[in-house]
Design a protein that fits this description.
It contains six helices and five strands. The protein is an alpha/beta fold and 158 residues long. It starts with a strand and ends in a 6-residue tail after the last helix.
Length: 158
């Protein structure tokens, strides 16, 4: 599986640690690659544009659980909020800002999240690694949750 990842300067250290913890994954790291101050929406956009293409292919191939498709994503910034807000502007993206393993699991099981968002300032590397593991192993339950997930991508009329 490909895991698209991006971070801002605040998330760089955590991103490098979690990538090193999962050498078996095919990481597509869009940056940032140094500690210089950057704008997190730029990196969220790169990950989300790639995942949007994947999700459209999943839909065409009748893949309903994002985990069964070829790619997922991980975004990291200081609080996680900025990355989550930007990512969720993309209709095919379901980015979940998670703070423990249970929330990471539920984001997959109930919301079919395809991007895990982490807070570098409030998440230890050990917890981040546990959350990524749970996130990438948890299956979407479908059923009543599918109807709700479908509504997430629908036009709001605004």
């Amino acid at each position: 599986m490909v895991v698209y990842t991006g971070c801002d300067h605040a998330g760089l250290d955590l991103k490098l640690k979690v990538m090193a913890a999962f050498p078996e994954l095919s990481w597509k790291d869009v940056g940032t690659h140094n500690g210089d101050s950057v704008d997190y929406p730029d990196y969220a956009d790169q990950v989300c544009k790639s995942l949007t293409q994947v999700e459209l292919e999943n839909h065409k191939n009748k893949i309903t659980d994002s985990l069964e498709g070829p790619a997922m994503g991980v975004l990291i910034c200081g609080s996680g909020q900025g990355m989550a807000i930007r990512a969720n502007r993309y209709p095919q993206v379901r980015a979940a800002l998670c703070w423990n393993e249970d929330i990471a699991r539920l984001s997959r099981e109930h919301n079919n999240a395809n991007i895990l968002v982490l807070s570098a300032r409030f998440t230890s590397p050990d917890l981040a690694i546990k959350m990524i593991k749970v996130f990438l192993q948890s299956k979407f339950e479908g059923g009543r949750h599918q109807r709700r997930v479908d509504k997430l991508s629908s036009d709001t009329g605004c």
